[in-house]
Q: What sequence folds into this?
């Protein structure tokens, strides 16, 4: 009976040790994955900031007017060219 109890305790001890090793390994792999995801998040936040700045620059009314006149050859209509349609 004593040998059986000792064998059970040794097996339980080995199983616990294996469980601890597995848990530490899993923790390390998850930590590495978390670090990669945080780095990716930071890069995306930087890119988002750049895109917001670019959008603000492109959407600026003077910029739109400049592109319309230089690239598209557009201009404001003369007063005689404006027609008002009334219902």
A:
């Amino acid at each position: 009976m004593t040998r059986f109890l000792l064998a059970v305790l040794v097996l339980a001890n080995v199983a616990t040790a294996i469980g601890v090793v597995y848990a530490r390994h899993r923790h390390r792999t998850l930590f590495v994955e978390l670090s990669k995801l945080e780095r990716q998040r930071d890069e995306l936040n930087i890119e988002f900031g750049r895109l917001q700045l670019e959008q603000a620059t492109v959407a600026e009314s003077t910029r739109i007017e400049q592109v319309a006149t230089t690239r598209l050859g557009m201009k404001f209509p003369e007063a005689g060219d404006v027609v008002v349609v009334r219902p």
